[in-house]
Amino acid sequence: MSDLRITEAFLYMDYLRMSECIQISFAVCRIGIYTAGLLCSTSIQPLGTYILLASPVISRISRKFKCFRALCCKGPPPARPEYDLVCIGLTGSGKTSLLSKLCSESPNSVVSTTGFSIKAVPFQNAILNVKELGGADNIRKYWSRYYQGSQGVIFVLDSASSEDDLETARNELHSALQHPQLCTLPFLILANHQDKPAARSVQEIRLFPQETAGVWMCVKKYFELEPLARGKRWILQPCSLDDMDALKDSFSQLINLLEEKDHEAVRM
């Protein structure tokens, strides 16, 4: 038999071996076993360097197949971290509507929370399991019973509410910031309903209107976050249902704080 015939026979054998390897790789990848790289790398080795020199086609196929193997058998993406959060705020602040919008739920299905509800809010780099607590007067006294296990806090306030309601929200926020189970956690404070005409800006929310000698004056003590939250991780952001980009950005900042706290715990 001539050398040419022998070469053709070897090429045909390599072709059969490569075809079999491709079929095995597809089967292995389908069932989620990512050891196909080792199997494939040992299966398509040429039988002789002189064959590769005689046939550049085999070399090209081998390189392409290795690229395919890297894409097909690289394994699943890493799981997103999950964080357990508690969401509090007075009734009417918009907690349920904001969370439902983030979960892409229909606005027609939004019902004010009377006890508590839990939603898994997905983001690109994390999943937030948010426990929302009702904000009625007769429920707020039980909030602290649901704080255990929380890794972060979302506080929603109605920036267009009355001065009395804002004062009540201030007291509830102060109580949460000082609670033993929450005082070391990251806080996201959302000034909701910025789309309403009576809404106060974040700058105004930092000021507390106080009547002096019959004249309403703004004294720099509203919510008193700076002295109370000094040394804590907290974010104050405006939001509304009409600006989902800003809302998602606020949650992205909260996720960054949660990740930083995780990294600190690992270092300790």
Describe this protein with a few key phrases.
268 residues; alpha/beta; two-stranded antiparallel sheet; globular
SSE layout and pairing:
Layout: H1 3-30, H2 36-43, H3 49-54, H4 56-72, E1 82-88, H5 95-102, E2 116-122, E3 127-133, H6 137-140, E4 152-158, H7 163-177, E5 187-192, H8 202-205, E6 208-212, E7 215-219, H9 225-228, E8 234-238, H10 244-267
Parallel strand pairs: 1-3, 1-4, 4-5, 5-8
Antiparallel strand pairs: 2-3, 6-7
Tell me what the structure shows:
- The protein is of the alpha/beta class.
- Helix content is 44%, strand content 18%.
- The chain contains 10 helices and 8 strands.
- It has helices at residues 3-30, 36-43, 49-54, 56-72, 95-102, 137-140, 163-177, 202-205, 225-228, 244-267; strands at residues 82-88, 116-122, 127-133, 152-158, 187-192, 208-212, 215-219, 234-238.
- The strands form 2 sheets. It has a 6-stranded mixed β-sheet, sandwiched between helices.
- The longest helix has 28 residues, at 3-30.
- The radius of gyration is 30 Å and the shape is globular.
- The model is unreliable at 26-55 and 211-221 (pLDDT under 50).
